C-alpha cells in the first residue's frame, strides 16, 4: 500500500484502456477510487475492474456516468480529493456526426466534470488531453521542435475534417479557460499514441492501429501521430502530476517525437512473420524528431519505456487476448 492510503479520487472513463491502467496503479498506491463507466449492467465494463489485483468493494466504487448528464458526474465526484478526467470519445476513423460523436462529449463533458469538481471542492483535476491538441500544427516554425507551447490548428482540422484533434483541442482550451475563470487547480497530460498491455476485453482505437498495421494496413495517420507511449507510463504520468504540486500546465507524454513510419519500420523489423507494409520514412511531413520531447515529465521523474518494448508488450497482449495468432 502507498502513502495516499484511503484518499478518494475519481477516474472518469475508468473502464477504458488508459482508465483501467490508471485505476490499477491508483489502487496499488492505496487510493480509494470512484471509477465511472457508461453501463453498470455491462460485464464488459465492470468485470475487468473488479478483478484488478487488490480491488474490493470498499476501495473501488463503480458509477454509471454519461458526460452529458451533469447529475451522473456529481455522484461520482462528490467526496473526492482529486479527479482524473480521462473519459472522452477516442475515434480516429471517419465519423458520421462529429458534433454528436466527438465534440459535444469532449467539450461539454469536460466543462461538466470541471463544474462538478469545483462544486465538490476537489483539490486538483488532472485532465487527459492528447498530442492531438498539439498536432497537426502546420504553422509552427519548421525549425523548432514541437513542445507544450504548440497548439493544434483548428482551421486546418475543420478544412480537412479531422475531428478528433479538434475535439481534444477545444476540450483542453475550454478546461484552461474554466480553470482561470473559476479558480480551479488543473494540470494536463498530453499523451502520444498509447500502446501496451490491454486490461479491458474490448480493443481501443490506438491498439487497433498496431493490430491493423500487423494485418497489412497502409494508413499513415498523417494528422494523428507524433510519437508512441506505453500505457503504464501514461497512467504513471497522471499520478505524478496529481501528487506533485510543483507540476503545472501541459505535459507532453511520448517516449520520443517520431513518425508513424519509424514505428512501422520497427514493427516490421521485430515481427517479420506478419505482413507489415513498407511505409515512407517521413509519414508526418515537417515533424521534427527528438528523443527529448517530454522534458517536463522526465524532470518529474518519469522514465519512459522505449519504442521496442512498447511494441513487444502490445503484440504479446494482442496475442494473449486472441486478436493475433
Ligand atoms: N489511446 C490513445 O492513444 C490516446 C492518446 C492520447 C490521449 N488519449 C485520451 O485518453 C482518454 C482515454 O482514451 P483510451 O485510449 O483509454 O480510449 P477508450 O478505451 O475508448 O476510453 C475512452 C473512455 O471514455 C468513455 N466515454 C466516452 N464517451 C463517453 C460519454 N459520453 N460518457 C461517459 N463516458 C464516455 C468511454 O466509456 P466506455 O468504455 O463505456 O465507452 C471510455 O471509458 C481519452 O480522453 C483520449 O482522448 C488517448
Automatic annotation (TrEMBL):
GO terms for molecular function: oxidoreductase activity. This is NAD-dependent epimerase/dehydratase domain-containing protein. Gene3D superfamilies: NAD(P)-binding Rossmann-like Domain. Keywords: NADP, Oxidoreductase. The keyword Nucleus does not apply. It comes from Penstemon smallii. Residues 9-244 form the NAD-dependent epimerase/dehydratase domain. InterPro entries: Epimerase_deHydtase, NAD(P)-bd_dom_sf, NAD(P)_dehydrat-like. The keyword Transcription regulation does not apply. The lineage of its organism: Eukaryota, Viridiplantae, Streptophyta, Embryophyta, Tracheophyta.
Amino acid at each position: 500500500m502507498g502513502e495516499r492510503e484511503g484518499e478518494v479520487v475519481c477516474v472518469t472513463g475508468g473502464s477504458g484502456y488508459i482508465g483501467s491502467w490508471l485505476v490499477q496503479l491508483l489502487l496499488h498506491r492505496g487510493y480509494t477510487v470512484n471509477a465511472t463507466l457508461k453501463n453498470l449492467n455491462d460485464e464488459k465494463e465492470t468485470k475487468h475492474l473488479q478483478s484488478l489485483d487488490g480491488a474490493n468493494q470498499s476501495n473501488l466504487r463503480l458509477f454509471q456516468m454519461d458526460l452529458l448528464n451533469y447529475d451522473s458526474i456529481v455522484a461520482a465526484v462528490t467526496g473526492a480529493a482529486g479527479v482524473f478526467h480521462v473519459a472522452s470519445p477516442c475515434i480516429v476513423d471517419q465519423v458520421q456526426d462529429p458534433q454528436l460523436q466527438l465534440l459535444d462529449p469532449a467539450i461539454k463533458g469536460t466543462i461538466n466534470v470541471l463544474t462538478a469538481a469545483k462544486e465538490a471542492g476537489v483539490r486538483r483535476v488532472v485532465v487527459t488531453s492528447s498530442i492531438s491538441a498539439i498536432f497537426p500544427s502546420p504553422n509552427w516554425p519548421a525549425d523548432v521542435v514541437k513542445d507544450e507551447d504548440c497548439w493544434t490548428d483548428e482551421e486546418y482540422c475543420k478544412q480537412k475534417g479531422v475531428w478528433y484533434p479538434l475535439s481534444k483541442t477545444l476540450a483542453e482550451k475550454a478546461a484552461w479557460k474554466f480553470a482561470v475563470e473559476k479558480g480551479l487547480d488543473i494540470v494536463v497530460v498530453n499523451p502520444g499514441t498509447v500502446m501496451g498491455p490491454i486490461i479491458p476485453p474490448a480493443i481501443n482505437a490506438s491498439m487497433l492501429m498496431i493490430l491493423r498495421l500487423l494485418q497489412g494496413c497502409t494508413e499513415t495517420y498523417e494528422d494523428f501521430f507524433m510519437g508512441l507511449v506505453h500505457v503504464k507510463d501514461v497512467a504513471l504520468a497522471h499520478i505524478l502530476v496529481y501528487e506533485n504540486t510543483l507540476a503545472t500546465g501541459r505535459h507532453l507524454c511520448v517516449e520520443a517525437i517520431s513518425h508513424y513510419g519509424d514505428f512501422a519500420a520497427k514493427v516490421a523489423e521485430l515481427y517479420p512473420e506478419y505482413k507489415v507494409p513498407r511505409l515512407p520514412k517521413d509519414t508526418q511531413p515537417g515533424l521534427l524528431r527528438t528523443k527529448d520531447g517530454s522534458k517536463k515529465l522526465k524532470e518529474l521523474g518519469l522514465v519512459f519505456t522505449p519504442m521496442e518494448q512498447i511494441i513487444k508488450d502490445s503484440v504479446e497482449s494482442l496475442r494473449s487476448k486472441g486478436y493475433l495468432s
